[in-house]
C-alpha cells in the first residue's frame, strides 16, 4: 500500500507540473523548442533521460543477468555515439536553423523525401515507444501484482496527457526530476543488494565464469562495433534527439548537450547493471523472457515498502520522459511539417496548438496498442535490437550525410533508404521464414549499419566526376539565403515571453526538486532499512534545488 501511495502522489505531482506549463506555449517555437533558448545543461540532462527508459532495466537488465558485464559494454557504445555527435553532428543541426529534422529534410532533399521519411519515422517511433511503455507496465504490474493490460492503458494515458498539455518544457522538467529520482533510487539499492549477497568480494568470487568479460555470448566484438556505429546514427540523427540540439541557442551549446550525455553514460550503466548482475547469485534460474523480470525481482527482494515505490516511480517516469519526448517530436513533425506545411499553411497559432495537442493524443493511443502487442512479438530484447538493426542505418544515416554532402540528392536518399530497409527486412523476416536461415546478432546489426553507409560512399564516388553539387543542394543554398534575408527579429514582447517561460521552467525545476527531497525525507523515517542513506540523499537534493532557483533569479534580472 505504501508503494502505491508513493506512486500516486508522485504521479499527481508530475501531472500538475505539466498543467502548470499549459499557458506558456504561445506558438510552435515555444511549445516544441522552448523558444530555442533552453539552457544546454537542461537540454543535456533531458537528452540523457529521453534516451533512457524502463527498457534499460528490462532489456539491458536481462542481458546483465544472463551475460554480465557485456550489458555495460553495450551501453558504453552510446557514450561513443554522443562524443562523435558533439564533435560533428549536433552543431551542424543547430546551424541549419530548422525547428525539426523533418524541416531540414524538406529544405535540403525536397518535400517528397520529407513526406516518405515522416511516414516511416512516425511508424518506427510509435513502435519503439510502444515497446518502452510495455517495459514499464510490466515492471509496475509484476511488482504491485496488478493486471498488465489495465496498467498499460492507465500509464499510457497519463504519458499522453502530460505531453499534450505542457510541450517541450514540461517534458524537460520531467526529465530532470526522473534523473534525480532514479539516481537516488539506484544509490539506495546498491548497498542493500551487495549486503544481500554477502558483500562485493563474495559477489566477485561467486559470479559465473566470463561474467566480467567485455563481450559474452552472442554479444561479440562484431556486435559491439556495429552497435557503436548505430549509436552515432541514432544519437546524432534521431529526430527526437535533434530537437534537443536545435532548442538551445548556439551550435557550441548544442555540442555541450551531447557531451553531457556522453559523460553521464560513462558511469550510469555500471550503477544500473550491478543489481541484476548480483541477482544471478540470488536466483540463478531465470531464462528467456523471465530474465526480463530480473531487475524488478531484485528490487522487490531488497527494497522496503516506500522505497520500492520510489524506484518504480523513477522507472515509470523515465519511460514517460522517453515516450513523451517521442510523442512531442512526432506531434511537432505532424503539426509543423504536414498540417502547417501541406494541409493548412495559413493556420494561426491557436489552431496549430490545437492540432499539436490532438495529434499527441492520436499517436499516443497508437503507442498504447503497440505496447499491448509486444508480448506476442518475442519480448523486449528481441524487439528493441531487431527494430534498431532494421531501421537505424537506412532511416537515420542519409539525412546525416546530407548535412555534409553537396552531391547527395533527394532521389538518391530515398533509393538508398528503401533498398537498405528492404534488404534488412528480407534477412530478418522473409529468409528465416522460408529456409530457417537467420543472421547472428552481430551480423544483423552490421548489415543494418554498414549497408546504407557503403551505398552512400559508392554514390559519392560515382557522381564525383559528373557534378560537384546536386540540384537539391543548390536549391537548399537558395532557401538558406532567402530565409536569412527574410529573417525577422523577435519583437520585444516575444523575447520577454520566451525569457518568462525559461525563468518559470527553472523555478519549477527548483520547486520539484524540493518536493522530491521532502518525499524522500518522509520515506527515510518510515522505511525499515536504508533510512540514513535516504535521508542523506534527500538533504543533497534539497541543496541542489538552490542551483536552478539562483539561475532563475539571474535570468530575471538580466
TrEMBL record:
Gene3D superfamilies reported for this sequence: Sodium/glucose cotransporter (1.20.1730.10)
Transmembrane segment boundaries: 6-25, 37-63, 69-90, 116-136, 148-169, 176-194, 219-236, 257-274, 294-317, 358-377, 383-404, 416-434, 446-463, 508-527, 533-551
The keyword Transport is annotated on this UniProt entry: yes
InterPro entries assigned: Na/Glc_symporter_sf, Na/solute_symporter, Sodium:Solute_Symporter_SSF
Swiss-Prot/TrEMBL keywords: Cell membrane, Ion transport, Membrane, Sodium, Sodium transport, Transmembrane, Transmembrane helix, Transport
Membrane topology recorded in Swiss-Prot or TrEMBL: Multi-pass membrane protein
Main location: membrane
Subcellular location: Cell membrane
Coiled-coil annotated spans: none
Family, per entry: Belongs to the sodium:solute symporter (SSF) (TC 2.A.21) family.
Protein name, per record: Na+:solute symporter
Native source species: Niabella ginsengisoli
